[in-house]
Amino acid sequence: MVKRHDSSGYFYHWTKADISHGNIQAWYESAYRKLLKILSEFELRSGASLGLPNGHNCICFTESPLSYITNDTSKYQPFGLEFSKRNIYILGGAHVIYGSQSDFLLLPEELKWRFMIHEPLLRDDKRIYGIDFTWEREVRVNSDKIDLIGESLITGPSYSGNVDLAFNSIVLPNASYKDRLFHELKITYVQSAQRNARDEREYDWLISFYDDVLEQYSYQIKIL
Q1: Is 0.85 topped by the overall pTM?
Q2: Is residue 141 within 8 Å of residue 153, measured between CB atoms?
Q3: Which pLDDT score is estimated for 214?
Q4: What per-residue confidence (pLDDT) applies to 66?
């Protein structure tokens, strides 16, 4: 049982949007498409491996509880995955180390992947609060990829009739996205089976497996 309302037993990976232009509909669409891609490919990838500008060589999570995303006005949108803290710790997850650039130079090489700049007094017209991301309560896994399905440190093997996923829940802002997500994933999975099946028997097996994946997803949806 958690001791405070601002703590929980979970970490969250939220998808982002560029909020420098557009409106909330555009931001939601961008974040939704990223979540769809994650679930289509069954993996979380680091920003650097995706070729994102300034992307980390790690996969990032937040410790902020689920309720905090509903009033979030940052780049993070209410589309994401919920993981148990225990599983992320098993994968080597660790809280970031907030500090100045001079602090970074003092860190041993094996800890630099955890560094996040923290310069709250470095203020100007564009950074009225300085550089301060402590509100993210960030946790990182030092890896380019986390598999969401398949045998790993936190999951057993998956096969037709038994799907074991790395995450606890798929989080969406409203029910309309649930229907859309399942419709588009169904199309994506059928296309995947068509591309990858070597014969009709394997195609039927893949379709059956993907149907089981979607059924498992249906148990793990959380609507805000």
Answers
A1: yes
A2: no
A3: 97
A4: 92
Distance CA 201, CA 189 (A): 16
Q: What per-residue confidence (pLDDT) applies to 151?
A: 96
Six-digit token pair at 23? 């409106």
How many Cβ atoms sit within 10 Å of the Cβ of residue 142? 16
Strand order across the beta sheet in which 221-223 lies: 94-95, 138-141, 59-62, 10-16, 76-84, 169-172, 221-223
Question: Where in the chain are the domains?
Answer: 10-93+142-172
Task: Determine contact, residues 104/115, Cβ cutoff 8 Å.
Answer: yes
Mean pLDDT of the 174-184 span: 96
Asked whether the predicted pLDDT for residue 63 surpasses 90, the reply is yes
CA 134 to each of CA 6, 34, 40, 79, 100: distance values in angstroms, whole numbers, following the listed order: 14, 24, 32, 21, 13
